[in-house]
Amino acid sequence: MASSTAKKTASSYQIGSTLSILYIAIRVSTANLSPITDCDEVFNYWEPLHFILYGSGMQTWEYAPQYALRTYVYLLPMAGLAKCLQFILKFLPRQQLFNLLLLQSSTTTQEILLMDDKPLLFAMLRSSLILLSCYSELSFLSSIHDTISPTLAHWTALCSFTTAGNFHASPALLPSSTVMILWRLSAANQLRGWDGYAILWGLVAVLAVGWPFCAVLFVSTGLWALRKAAVSSSLERNDDGIGMRCRLMVHVLIRTALHAIVIQAIVMMIDYHYYGKIVSPIWNIFVYNATAGGDELYGVEPLSYYVKNLLLNFNFVGLLGILSLPILLGRKLLASSFPHTTLFRLGDGHYSSSGASDGLKILMLVPMYIWMAIVFPRPHKEERFLFPIYPMLCFGASIALEEVMMMSMQVLSLILPKSKVAPSPNKCMLLGLVLLSPFAVISISRSFALHHNYSAPLDLYQHFYNHHIMSKDMTSERENEEVTYICTAGEWYRFPSSFFLPANTQLGFLKSSFSGQLPQPFTEFGSKKESLEIQEGAFNDVNKEEMDRYIGIHQCSYVIELVPSDISDGEETPECLQYMKSDPSGDWTQVASYKYLDAISTDALHRILYIPFRRTSKVRHKGYNLYSVSRSK
Predict the structure, then answer these.
(1) d(Cα 323, Cα 314) in Å, to the nearest integer?
(2) Rounded to an integer, what is the distance from CA 281 to the centroid of its chain?
(3) Residue 9: its pLDDT value, please?
(4) Which entry of 15, 81, 205, 541 is 20 to 30 Å from 434 by CA?
(5) Model-level pTM?
(6) How far apart, in whole angstroms, are the C-alpha atoms of residue 416 and residue 477?
(7) Beta strand pairing status for 484-488 and 58-59?
(8) What pLDDT shows up at residue 466?
(9) pLDDT at residue 6 is higher than 80
(10) Which among 211, 187, 210 is positioned nearest to 198, based on CA atoms?
(11) How many whole angstroms separate alpha carbon 214 and alpha carbon 207?
């Protein structure tokens, strides 16, 4: 089913090629420029990972033994990788690593050698997630190149590499991001005809990631494998052939069932170790979300929420991606309705993919529409729910562009001499890249805007880590094992994780306008039932506020707050500033401040995109501030 060009040309995206090395180098080096956009990533994944590694962290109700909605299996590969990196870091130059990963460091080289390495480890783990994402991208692109069309592979690569959606989805420790990676690996294998591996990656995504809803993305994968077994071209249509086809189909089903049993058995054994009982988190989370009103407790949004997110992260590419299957099927319908005209038939593979590859294209696109049909109508909407279809959007945009370009050339060929409208393969590929380039530039500008506008929390907590761990008080705190609280009120959801907190330092919550349930520290027993006997606070599954989560300002040594540049008359003073002002025993001083976008005061264009011209006059910022206290004895 491969085009003639694909058979002759080696893939530019094979691991080890110059293009793949450059692709990986740029993506990995920019991994930590992306801000963390979802507090669920921090509290449901980075915090439990920190607990596994260091024995401390914040626990959400999903990890409580009475609910058990999250599987620890998802975190163990990262924990193993972290252990390896911790060992390797002992022998690597720290300052050079900070520079390589584009991290800010306010300490000297000598100080870096003395300090703990948790923020650097955090950055390397995010870069590792990007590395895995790059591997899946290159595998997918290489398969497109070899089995469908080199031109489609190049166009898909441009969309995938530049899109703002991939910029912040790829380094995210989220099941939806991991499903995106595993879908690419599954699709890459299926395009090459390796259906067994394709199904295996799908089983890993469904059973080991802890997000069973993604199963719908792999339904077409299984059906395609069964179809191939049923219509094997090597068998004749006789009784023996029918029997053989049935045996092949049964073989596919049995193999899949055995793989599923093995994976599920491993998952349940690991979760038994961490929960202290036989439990199935994927079943629990499925039941919870299937129950009316389950996920709706965390907010509802209109359909326009997803439309806006797709436009922000993909701009015109997103629109092309969504229209790709209707355009492809529409052209095929016209071609079958008018068989005697060449107007609706694509080229022979020299400058477009051949018509024989249409089945593979449809196979890759169908899961996107199934996913949208399920996710879009649900009241509770989050941007991360769209991550799994990001590869399909990029591939679909390339298909839509190919269809439109080839149809346009066919029309022009009826008007002008064919020699004037039949470009060479390279010219056709370059023309598509030129057409996509403006949208790629817009996406890159969006990525720059995300970094410049919203990176203050990561930068400030990094500053706090360096400041606190090198302070004179650190030695005595370690000796006395006193807990130092860094507190926040309404800014709790921008906390980047305990990887930015030194030893004996803990996040503290001050009462704010938020009225939902906050996490609380893990006990030494983690998610086992013994933790319920010593844990001070209670958990619930209805997002009800638990007042035992809060501490007083007198217990805080540091405070983080988002402060307007100018608090005008009638504007409410930020909550933490009110707490500090009411603290009779504390003398609070500002230690650091980083710029955070003031979205209300900044016009929409400069809020959405990074435009260097007149930026100073158009963009307004708030201060993401760190305060420390000196208390009277």
Answers:
(1) 13
(2) 21
(3) 59
(4) 15
(5) 0.91
(6) 82
(7) unpaired
(8) 85
(9) no
(10) 187
(11) 10
Q: What's the rounded Cα separation, in Å, for the pair 368 and 140?
A: 16
User: How many other C-beta atoms can be found within 10 angstroms of the C-beta atom of residue 571?
Assistant: 9
Q: Compute the average pLDDT of residues 307-324.
A: 94
Give the residue from 23, 14, 125 showing the smallest Cα distance to 80: 125
Q: Helix or strand or coil: residue 570?
A: coil
Instruction: Specify whether the CB–CB gap between 540 and 518 falls below 8 A.
Output: no
Give the closest residue to 49 by CA, choosing from 174, 146, 201.
174
DSSP assignment letter at 550: B
What's the half-sphere exposure (Cβ side, CA atoms, 13 Å) at 611? 15
Q: Are 344 and 331 in contact (CB under 8 A)?
A: yes
Calculate the CA 434 to chain-centre distance: 28
Sequence-distant (6+) residues with CB within 8 A of 557 are: 484, 485, 486, 628, 629
Which pair of structure tokens corresponds to residue 104? 């800010």
The conformation of residue 44, written as its DSSP 8-state character, comes to I
SS3 458: helix
Model confidence pLDDT, tens digit, residues 584-615: 888 999 999 999 999 999 999 999 999 988 88
State yes or no: pLDDT of 332 exceeds 60: yes
Element (H, E) at 631: strand 621-631
User: Is residue 517's pLDDT more than 70?
Assistant: yes
Does the pLDDT at position 425 exceed 80? Answer: no
Give yes or no for a contact between 206 and 424, defined as CB atoms under 8 angstroms apart: no
In sequence order, the 6+-apart residues with CB closer than 8 A to the CB of 572 are: none
State the Cα–Cα distance between residues 78 and 87, nearest whole angstrom: 14
For the chain, the residue count is: 633
4 class by beta-carbon count within 10 Å (0-12 exposed, 13-18 middle, 19+ buried): exposed
- Cα(67)–Cα(433) distance, rounded to whole angstroms? 50
- In whole angstroms, what is the distance from residue 95 CA to residue 90 CA? 13
Task: Break the chain down into helix, strand, coil percent, rounded to 5.
Answer: 60, 5, 30
